[in-house]
Design a protein that fits this description.
Elements: E1 3-9, H1 13-26, E2 31-36, H2 43-48, E3 55-59, H3 64-74, E4 79-83, E5 87-89, H4 93-102, E6 107-109, E7 112-113, E8 123-126, E9 129-132, E10 138-142, H5 143-149, H6 160-170, E11 175-177, E12 183-185, H7 198-213, H8 217-239, H9 245-272, E13 290-295
Helix pairs in contact: 6-7, 7-8, 7-9, 8-9
């Protein structure tokens, strides 16, 4: 196995340093490719001074899926991992990766560990298809699987790994969830991600489902169910005095707008790429966003 690790980053110099230190300690033979968005915190200089990064790719786009695809193109390994810049691989990570690939899986993924309690395989049945969801912070692909996907869909601002999971299932690639393939925040439990823009989140949801499954009644119901559950939670916050009615109203408007635009764009994307990979905005279609490339191999 020739392993490459792609680490997209944006204004995360200090956290990236810890991520790279852990890779050097636990996965010393891996090729490390850092993809740096338009950072303004000295990331380029820090990476350039290290001896454990083979390639640094500078891009002008803040879209994480564009960064992932640029990393895929720069990586040379037959196995390619994606790791978020502020995550640290655990000691068991490499052994779990090797075991998962030896078992025949095409893709292996694992948890971002804050606690070992309650870790379960994130699989769902959607429109008759069994989908095991990848953790975009910590996932490893065979090169064959990446090429079959044509990388990530760069239309998406969020939800790229979930979209890839739908498409992997549609292509009959096996995804294995391994609790031992774990990463963690070097600063401990970090309280999770900041809240994503609701309109972008709903647009991503509708786009993924319509693009991958079409306008089936079950897909429409699933989208509306998720939006309704979110709205109920917001309404409860208003009734409890923790939120405002105007915020709840704005929440609903953002959900409707996001779902409408996402469904429309998802249908267009489905018609543009009728193949099983369902990716009209992948690596083969992308404009070259690389501003600078440093190769120390």
């Amino acid at each position: 196995m020739e392993l490459s690790v792609v680490v997209p980053t944006l204004n995360g110099r200090d956290q990236l340093g810890g991520c790279l230190d852990a890779l050097a300690e636990h996965v010393p033979e891996a090729e490390v490719v850092v993809v740096n968005g338009p950072s303004a915190d000295g990331t380029t200089g820090m990476v350039s001074e290290r001896g454990d990064v083979e390639t640094l790719v500078e891009i002008a786009d803040r879209n994480v899926n564009a960064a992932r695809n640029a990393g895929f193109e720069a990586a040379t390994g037959d196995t390619i991992a994606l790791l978020r810049f502020d995550r640290v691989v655990d000691e068991s990570w490499l052994d779990a990766l090797e075991a998962g690939l030896e078992s025949g899986a095409d893709v292996v993924t694992g948890p971002t560990r804050t606690t070992l309690e309650g870790i379960e395989e994130p699989a769902q049945s959607i429109a008759g298809r069994s989908v095991t969801f990848c953790n975009g912070e910590n996932v490893v692909f065979s090169r064959e699987a990446i090429e079959a996907l044509d990388g990530f869909d760069e239309y998406l601002e969020v939800g790229g790994s979930r979209d890839a999971s739908h498409r992997l299932a549609g292509l009959d690639y096996e995804v294995e969830w391994l609790p031992e393939l774990s990463v963690h925040s070097q600063y401990g439990a970090d309280g999770g991600e900041p809240e994503t823009d609701r309109r972008a989140r709903y647009r991503s949801l509708a786009y993924q489902l319509v693009k991958n499954y079409g306008l089936r009644p079950s897909i429409v119901i699933r989208s509306l169910r998720d939006a309704t559950a979110d709205a109920v939670g917001a309404a409860r916050s208003v009734l409890d005095g923790d939120g405002r009615f105007t915020s709840w109203f704005g929440h609903g408007r953002a959900a409707i707008a996001g779902l409408s635009v996402g469904a429309k764009d998802g249908w267009r994307a489905r018609r543009r790429d009728r193949s099983r990979r369902r990716n009209p905005n992948g690596i083969s279609a992308r404009a070259d966003r690389v501003v600078q490339r440093y190769d120390w191999r």
